[in-house]
Amino acid sequence: MEEWTLKTRAMDTQNLEKAAIKIQSWWRGNTVRRTLLHAALRAWVIQCWWRSMQAKMLEQRRRLALRLYTCQEWAVVKVQAQVRMWQARRRFLQARQAACIIQSHWRWHTSQTRGLIRGRYEVKASRLELDIEILLT
Fold first, then answer.
1. Which neighbouring-strand residues pair with 133?
2. φ and ψ at residue 130, rounded to 5 degrees
3. Which residues of 51-65 are buried (b: 16+ CB within 10 A; e: fewer)?
4. PANTHER family per the record (predicted)?
5. Measured between alpha carbons, how far is residue 16 from residues 9, 26, 29, 97 in Å?
């Protein structure tokens, strides 16, 4: 009987060791899984932060490009307006100069002749049309 109790005690010890090993492996497995889960969550948080930073940087680049484009567009519009103003002023000054010449010739001619002078003039975009009819008496 004593032999049987020694065998059962030995088996009980082996069973306890196996049970302890199972519990230890289960605990290690849980610990490893928890550690991996925490690492994966940390990596996910870092990835989310990085993606949001990339989106912000992309938006900043887009806004900068839009601002640069609008500044260039505004500069082009300003230059075009200045050129058009210069052209209009040049045409106006040419027409005014032509009108002054016509007036001076008209005044001189009316003082020299006492005839009848009829005329009309029309200022167009880049030239002056002039029709003069002189009737001497």
1. 118
2. -135, 130
3. eeeeeeeeeeeeeee
4. IQ DOMAIN-CONTAINING PROTEIN F6, IQ MOTIF CONTAINING F
5. 10, 15, 19, 120
The reported pLDDT for the residue numbered 134 is 64
Task: Please answer whether residues 129 and 121 qualify as being in contact, where contact means their C-beta atoms are separated by less than 8 angstroms.
Answer: yes
Q: Which helix (H) or strand (E) holds 128?
A: strand 128-135
Task: Classify the C-alpha dihedral 73-75-81-86 as positive or negative.
Answer: negative
3-state secondary structure 41-84: HHHHHHHHHHHHHHHHHHHHHHHHHHHHHHHHHHHHHHHHHHHH
- The number of beta carbons lying within 10 Å of the beta carbon of residue 48 is 10
The CA distances from residue 73 to 65, 76, 83, 110, in Å, are 12, 5, 15, 55
End-to-end CA distance of the chain: 168
Q: Residue 121: helix, strand or coil by DSSP?
A: strand
